[in-house]
Structures are given as structure tokens and as C-alpha cells.
Fold this sequence. Notes:
23% helix, alpha+beta, SH3 type barrels, 42% strand, 5-stranded antiparallel beta sheet, single chain
Amino acid sequence: MNLLSAEEGKEYIILDIETDDEELDAFLFSLGCYSGEPITVISHIKGGCVVSIKDGRYNIDSQLAEAIIIG
């Protein structure tokens, strides 16, 4: 399952990041978004979703949300 199909307010664990872009991987890693980390979808918005990772909230676009596999 990816972030777009996640329930709002429920905590998930990031299983994988499916992207071929090393720059994007590095950016997500700097946010604390990597395998094994908990992530919570705060709300779904047009064009993506708002997520909580560690102590921060981030707006993730739909293309990026599809690449973040959760379980």
C-alpha cells in the first residue's frame, strides 16, 4: 500500500521508497522518511497529502506519495 491509500490519522511504518532518483531519495532521507520509520497521514489534499514524520509535517505530492510504500 502507498501513502495515497492510507487512512488519515493512522500511523504506518515505511517499508520502501520506490524511486530511481537518487536526489529524491536523499531529500526524503533528510526529512526522516526511510524504511522502518513511522509515518502518519494527517490529511489528504488535492494533489497529495500532508504527513507527519518524526516532529515535522510535510506536504507530499501525489507522485511522491505513490512512491512511499507503507505497511
